[in-house]
Specification:
This protein has 163 residues and is mainly beta. The chain has one domain: Sandwich (Gamma-B Crystallin, domain 1), CATH 2.60.20.10. It has a six-stranded mixed beta sheet, with helices on one face. Strands 1-6-5-8-11 form a five-stranded mixed beta sheet, with no helix packed on it. Strands 3-4 form a two-stranded antiparallel ribbon. The radius of gyration is 14 Å and the shape is globular. 34% of the residues are buried. About 17% of the residues have low confidence.
């Protein structure tokens, strides 16, 4: 039986600092509980993460907003990501997902730009490796990713999920 975790990002006011959320996970369902929604950039974003190739296995869904996960262990999804779907229904080109091999946005990284479905991360050389991620409603550059790694924090007013 597949477990689905639905994560709806709260909306935050425009700010240069990321909003920090300390996730609380219920022991039985392991669903991340987030506060009520406010107004945030990327309200038409959607990211689905799957533990198996071909969009199968356990699943986490992020709806309505930019999000960063500092440590995928908090979601029970460290080193298990094998496929994903991402989209921005406002502008298919203006969306980026950065997967990092280590927690705290460190290590080797892979950037995906534009709405897309990746059914097999084995083919991408990043299967079962993601330990942190950043998902934003814009095209993110390699230099910006290196800045994220130096600062160890996501860009702008992105909701950050961490312990």
């Amino acid at each position: 039986m597949n477990k689905t975790k639905v994560v709806s990002s709260p909306k935050v006011k425009s700010s240069r600092k990321p909003m920090v959320l300390k996730a609380k996970i219920a022991n039985k369902t392991r669903v991340v509980k987030l506060p009520a929604r406010l107004s945030q950039r990327g309200e038409n974003l959607r990211l689905q993460l799957f533990s198996d190739i071909n969009f199968e296995g356990d699943r986490i869904v992020f709806n309505a907003g930019e999000v960063a996960v500092r440590d995928m262990r908090i979601l029970g999804f460290n080193d298990v990501l094998s496929s994903f779907r991402m989209r921005n229904s406002d502008d298919r080109r203006e969306v980026s997902l950065v997967l990092f091999e280590d927690i705290n946005y460190q290590g080797r990284f892979k950037i995906y730009r534009g709405s897309r479905n990746i059914r097999n991360l084995v083919d991408e050389g990043f299967n079962d490796l993601a330990s942190s991620l950043v998902f934003v409603a814009r095209r993110i550059s390699n230099s910006r990713v290196r800045q994220i790694q130096r600062d160890q924090r996501p860009p702008g007013a992105v909701l950050e999920i961490r312990r």
